[in-house]
Design a protein that fits this description.
The chain is α/β, with parallel strands linked by helices. The chain has four domains: about 300 residues, no CATH class; about 140 residues, Hedgehog/Intein (Hint) domain (Endonuclease - Pi-scei, Chain A, domain 1); about 90 residues, Endonuclease I-creI (Roll); about 55 residues, no CATH class. The chain is built from 18 helices and 47 strands. The strands form nine sheets. Strands 5, 6, 8, 9, 34, 35, 37, 39, 40, 42, 44 and 46 form a twelve-stranded mixed β-sheet that branches. Strands 4-3-7-10-36-38-41-43-45-47 form a ten-stranded mixed β-sheet. Strands 11, 14, 15, 16, 17, 18, 19, 30 and 31 form a nine-stranded antiparallel β-sheet that branches. Helix 3 runs antiparallel to helix 8, helix 10 runs parallel beside helix 14 and helix 17 runs antiparallel to helix 18. The longest helix has 17 residues. It starts with a helix and ends in a 6-residue tail after the last helix.
Length: about 850
Amino acid sequence: MADENLKAILEQQSSEYKELYGFRDEHKYEHITKKGLTEETVREISKIKEEPEWMLEKRLAGYKIFREKPTPTWGGDLSEIDYNDIYYYLKPGAQKADAWENVPDDIKKTFDKLGIPEAERKFFSGAEAQYDSEVVYHHVREDLEKQGVIFTDTDTAIKKYPEIVKKYFGTIIPPSDNKFAALNTAVFSGGSFIYVPKGIKVAMPLQAYFRINAEKAGQFERTLIIADEGADVTYIEGCLPADEIVSRGDTFGRIDEIKKGDTVPTHKGSMQTVNETFVHKHKGTILEILPQSKGNGFRLTGEHPVLCVKRNVVLTKRKRRGTWKPEVSTKELLKAEPAFVKADDLEEGDFIVYIAPTQSSDDPLIDNKLLKILGLYLAEGSVSSNKALRGIKSVSFSFGKSIKEAALAREVNSLIQGEGWKSSVFRTNGGYYVVSSYNKELVALCENNCGKGAKTKLLSKTIMNLPPEKQFVLVDYYWKGDGNTYVRYGKKLKRASTASRFLAYQIQEILGRNGIFANLNIRHSSKDRILGRMIKRSDQYIIEYTEGRRIGEVRKKSNTFLVPIKKIMRHAFKDLVYNFAVSNDESYLVKGFAVHNCTAPIYMSSSLHSAVVELVAHKDAHIRYVTIQNWSKNVYNLVTQRAFAYENAYVEWIDGNIGSRLNMKYPSVYLKGTGARGEVLSIAVAGEGQTQDSGGKIYHLAPNTSSKIVSKSVSKGSGVAAYRGLLHIAKNASGVKSNVRCDALLLDQHSKTATYPYMQVYRDDAVITHEATVGKIGSEQLFYMMSRGLTEDEAIATIVLGFIEDLAKVLPLEYSIELKRLIKLDTSGGVG
């Protein structure tokens, strides 16, 4: 039965509907229930989860209510939902993992693709990831566990903490509340369970990601958060230092110099455009990753994903040799598919991926003879101006005293003269050989393609775009001039050094393009004797490789190299960190190693997301619940969210709604204790074909309570944004203060907005303010901004971002950035 259901799903999963933020994966499910909802389905789900009898009873009660309650006819159009055409439970072929590397690669890739930019990846106290019906990854910080904080998935909580779950489950939102709360009670799977003990304050947010992968699938997670007396918790549903070096294709540069519109190579070897750059302050730990090639070591925050193969999945039974890590199977290593893994989850011995991107656009004017000259120039050449000759420039090649060096001097002199350029060879008083030429063409060739000065030599774009075999000619002659060859185990070990950091990375990349991985090491500044003189040598970048032999455990796979991590260090850090978003491949290269840059799949048929979120804030507790919802445009997002706030407790709902076909979500707070406070801050963007029906509800059920509801909506094209809110003030709720504000912005003449405010006030002393505004982008505004150099799309996005700024700024920085990025994408396309 499961195989037949799986086949049906895979037949429906068509790549034709993939968008910039829509993708799906061919994942094999372990178990899939039949389409449609019956009592048998409910019992099957409970049995698979091995739940206690009391939970099955709750499910069956929810199912009965779901069958009895009619589908709501207010709000958005729900008439097209076919409850019999939905898979209510899909179990991924994976057990829940507490370490990211243990999550199956295909699922792991999916969450890596979620496109959370590194500026949005601060350290979190705990994280959870749900794929279709099951939580596939869960991790919580050890120090929080020691304080008694419980953060797990709801299915686990039912078994491990039954008394707490029984006490609260379904008491804040009973199944009788509405049809979709009843549906969730019947078929819920996954979700988060959080308990924060008395007086404990969780300083960093807890987060979760939810993903619907299969077409015609439903996701019904159940979240329950309890903050005991005086506790504080923030829950969120779903970078590199400035001097880190990233590849730019033809050269390398600092990450803080990358600009929007630049192109960079990705982990797939293609050149892609930088869509956005990010920077934020980071205070905490930063990781330093030292691969076998230590000169390629790089630093990044713990949340930044790195492309790698985990060592523990490619081990062999062969005995360990020496003191290094357990042996790996080369066969298994080369078969393994690299996946992005958070830096925090990397271990010494894991293999990270070095990429040598190839951009071939041959220049026939640069032949092998010229490449030999340039190779020797890189090694031994310099350009200088002769003041006695009115600043005329000359090129000099300086060689040693040996017979070999004399032969090189004669060879380069012959090559130069072979091009019809004048040059001469002479010996200094110390016996060193020097080749000199004043030919302008030669000077230009060397300066334009290799630079000048030992520290600043750099290969030009022309050279870096040559075919690899031609580039190797240059490198080979560079080695002849500046390298040494040693025989080790019958093989030739080749070594060369340069004072130019970026040149070293370029040479390493060229060797990589020719199928050779070269180690890069750094010898820090020291005194040395050059041409008979004592000088202070700057940092030297040493490049070495062995002809016809692998270096250590490095393995070549296609056009990439799998390089083991030798050491991981953690350092205290307090400074700016940088990241950028890259189109399509969503990755870039740091000193040649692939890292990720910084959402729901698209299908023709509809999916259903019907979650229930219950919050309990006891006396003096604080809960902040943040959601940035970007479901794909085929999803019905029908969510019930409610909080109970007791004496002096404070509950915040911060709600961003960008995606889904129809969104109906009205977070509510029941202020049940004196002095309790509640806030609902909502942003909704309704694009083409979307309905965003959202808002909030506040129930003042005790004296001296206060509340605020702020709703901002943006509509475009056929999009409809509606505010639907309720303010209830009970007879016993004296001294209430409340403010409700609804602002709507229309981007064109077709878009629509509506406001449905309901107020039930049973006290004369309540202080209530209500404001509502509707605005439209005018042609004069656009003209003014476009006259300042903005495109129409940029002007619209700027106006919209200004409109929602007062709400966006209360979001955590990383989610504020993400929200703005999504809004920019969603509002592009002009004004009607």
